Structures are given as C-alpha cells and as structure tokens.
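Example record for the data management plan.
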Amino acid sequence: DGDGYSDCSDSDCSSGASCADPVVDPVIDPVVTLSLSTTDFGYPYNPLAGSPVMRWVSASGSNFQSDGVTHNDCTVLSAPCADFRAALAQVLPGEIIAAFADGVYPMTANLMIDKEVKIDGGYYWEDAEHTILAANPSTHPAVLEFATNKALVVHALTAAVAVTGLDIRGEHFPAVLRVVDSSPTFNFCRITAQAG
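Corresponding structural encoding:
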C-alpha cells in the first residue's frame, strides 16, 4: 500500500517479509479493584505497588498541562493524556500505558509501536467521585477507531510488546493491524474490520 509496512498476509510472509501472528490468551482476567484516596493522586502516581511507571490515557484527557503550553507527561492519574500517540511519544522501555475505557479514541494516522511497552486497556472508575479504580479488559476494552487505510503498526524488532484490553476497529482486515519484524502478544483484544 506504499507506506513501507507489510500487511502481514500469508503471501507477504512467504515472500520473505518477517511477519508474526499475534499470540492471543483466551483466559479472562478477574476484575481488579483498587481503593484510592485523593492523597494518592501525586506525581508520578502508580496504583499497582511495585509496578513500572504508568502513563495514563483517557478519551476525556488532555495532551497539555493546565497552562495549555507544556506537554502532559501522562503520569498523573487525575490528569491523563488524551490519546495513545502522546503516551507512546513519552513512554520509556518497560513502562505501561494504561488506557481508560471512557470513550472512543479516534485514530486519524497510523499508530506505531516501535519500543518495549505494555499497553493495558480496561480501566474505569466504579464511582462518580473517582475514588475506586477498576480494571477489566474483557468487559471494558479501550476502543481505538482507525480512519480509512490507517492501522496499529507494531515494528519493535526484539523489544517486548504486550497489548491487553483494546478494541481495534478499522475499515479493512488485516490491514488495521500490521505486525512487522516483531512478536507482540495480544490478550483480551478484539479486532473489528471488514474482510478485504
């Protein structure tokens, strides 16, 4: 299609392109519920003790801090970034991008994953006061809706990429998900697209 990336069809792989099928884990994780207090919303906030830094994404977030000029680094739970592109630009190897299932994330360009990262969708607030955070990727996936001819592209070579709890939507399958020279894992993800 001219963008330099393989769509990873069988013919692409047999012609020498390096393609990998995503690994899908059929086991459903239980809901994780965390009780938080307002004093927990510090910088950087990570509700999972002992885990790596988390970069938060919400459809109702902002890619800028309150001054409207400084870029949001996505590490404050109460001030998440608005899209995956902003979080991916800042995430360091081994960190987690945690996505709220609070709306549709419109994807008007390809979303490239080219580094070690874990992306977890399925976060939501169980209460109106935002004090109880829960995660259930099987029932609350984060929805990425790709525009025509745009895709989630994983081109991370030897870097570990793990994606959980995303609902990836696009116009055509398999072009909405392209895996090039990588072996990512996909758990509790749904790909919705027309064949062809």
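Summary line stored alongside the record: The first strand starts at residue 23 and ends at 25.
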